[in-house]
Amino acid sequence: MNGSSKRRPTRSVRVGEIVIGDDAPIVVQSMCATKTRDIDATVAQAEQLREAGAGVVRIAIDNDKEVEALREVRKQTRANLAVDLQENYRLADKVAPFVEKIRYNPGHLHHIERDKTIPQKVEWLASVARDNDCAIRVGVNCGSVAPAFLEQHPGDQLEALVQSAIYHCSLLEDLGFERFVVSLKDSDPDKVLAANRRFAEAAPMVPLHLGVTEAGLPPQGIIKTRVAFEKLLAEGIGDTIRVSLTLPNDRKHEEVEVGHAIIDDVANGRFISVPDLKGLNIISCPSCSRVENEAFVNLAEDVREITTYASKYDVTIAVMGCRVNGPGETDDADLGLWCGPSTVTLKRKAEKVGSFGYDVVLDELRRHLDDLIADRAAGAA
């Protein structure tokens, strides 16, 4: 989809061999779900995604051993690589020589080097990107909004999300660095719509990366993604997209295929009829290299299977695969599971119920789901 007649005009941002924004075709991205230190598997998946049509392939990096693995991956793949710094922005200068784009989360910068200010940290990231010919993605997420912005906008997480993104744009632009894109993600398609519309109005020249984070298992995850993407793309908002589905590694390329199908459908006026999303809503994050136990994907599928009896109830269950997104992004769910190497933490809203083995956590989940349904029935009575 070129979309030059409909897309809002933004500045262009080069990422390796491709361009995001302006009148360039919308770029579909994806992320490796392999362990980064498994070089052969990561190279194979990067190529799998590239061959499926991914213009950018993202890899998560958390430590020096993964940096060394990335060095070898870079030698063996033709993909345009983006690196996900997550909670360790200090690795930026080590990984920048091997990638085309660096993604940082404004909500994670305050964790490390507390003696430095946020502007100082952003200035360093911009200098690293500039010195290594890299673009930047400023990626703000619903579950990890910077505390300062939550304090400034109490009770309005969406506005905190948008203002955090706008602030980081101003920091980068004041440094004379404009080679960046922004993403504002949530697991709720309506919030993704609202956040991106607000940001596009406030910062119309900044290219936008669209994503519904933790969209979940197909086909429901595809529907949630379409709910947001179809409307935004039809309004000319969105320069690059990521479809985040819970899939086993050998099917990860389906994210890319779905992304291209959505772009093509919007370009040709083909829209699905959007279903009512009331009732049971299962949120699960995309399988990626941060997942600490590969049983996570099977667990998400099992959760869907054992909770079908509750389909008529307005209950949200979140299944998260790692410690990075798990704790924060299960807080808003009625019931949340976030998966560690050997145990799964069960939550009711922000309250921790306990940690359980993978072999028993489904029984615990069902018990709490039954309690929740009974409590609501009693309240209604």
If you had to describe this structure to a student in words, what would you say it looks like?
The chain folds into two domains: 13-267, Dihydropteroate synthase-like (TIM Barrel); 281-380, Sulfite Reductase Hemoprotein, domain 1. An eight-stranded parallel β-barrel has the order 3-4-5-6-7-8-9-10, surrounded by seven helices. Strands 11-12-13-14-15 form a five-stranded mixed sheet. A two-stranded antiparallel ribbon has the order 1-2. With 381 residues, it is α/β, with parallel strands linked by helices. It has helices spanning 39-52, 64-76, 92-95, 118-131, 147-152, 157-174, 189-202, 220-234, 254-267, 295-306, 326-329, 361-380; strands at 13-15, 18-20, 27-31, 56-60, 81-84, 101-104, 135-141, 180-185, 208-211, 240-242, 281-284, 316-320, 335-339, 343-348, 351-357.
